[in-house]
Amino acid sequence: MASIITGLFESQSQSHQIGQDLENAGIQNQDYIIYLRDEKAHKEIKTSIWKYFFKDKTEPVDDSLAVSVKVKDPEQIEKIKEVFSKNNCIHQNYFENIKFRDAKSLDFLKKIIELHAKREIYNSPDINYRGQSAGINAEVNFGNPDTQS
Q1: How far apart are CA 122 and CA 111, in angstroms?
Q2: Is residue 3 within 8 Å of residue 98, measured between CB atoms?
Q3: CA distance linking residue 98 with residue 139, whole number of Å
Q4: What angle do helix axes 15-24 and 74-86 make, rounded to 10 degrees?
């Protein structure tokens, strides 16, 4: 089984540059996947969906881009992280023991990332909240023998 690094980038227009940078870093063409969409959604559809879900007036400029790279050793991991950083990677994940052929499916990859995110939430430490105390009240007896009954 292989390990992979996935990266999320802002725009699909970055695909050519990211591919070149990966190959310049010594990553072979068959060891990375750039997930491109054949069909672009019309701007009106993307904008209406965005506004419906996020109640935001910001208009999406372009579709995001996902990239997966098979890694073999720690040196390669560092090279890939440098390429991702150079190309303004929004978010990256490192996954061990994933078959690279399974990672060719973007739906499979999304599912793995979703499960990883849920695991991170469930593994977060317990939060203890302590409110303010009212302090000492009048019912406290400090050992005065005259007030004890």
Answers
A1: 17
A2: yes
A3: 64
A4: 150
Q: What is the pLDDT of residue 74?
A: 87
Instruction: Select from 29, 31, 32 the least CA-distant residue to 9.
Output: 32
- Nearest in space to 92 (alpha carbons), one of 35, 36, 9, 32: 9
pTM (2 d.p.): 0.62
Give the Cβ contact number of residue 31 at 10 Å. 19
First to last CA, the chain: 76
Name which of 6-10, 47-51, 104-108, 113-117 the model is least confident about.
Answer: 47-51
Tokens of 38: 């054949």
The 10s digit of each residue's pLDDT in 37-89 is 765 555 555 555 555 555 555 554 557 888 999 998 889 999 999 999 999 99
State the Cα–Cα distance between residues 50 and 124, nearest whole angstrom: 30
Q: Which two tokens stand for residue 82?
A: 């440098």
C-alpha 1/C-alpha 8 separation (Å) is 23
Question: Which stretches does DSSP call E strand in 10-101?
Answer: 32-35, 65-71, 91-98
Residue type, 72: K
147's tokens: 């007030």
Place of tokens 């881009």: 65
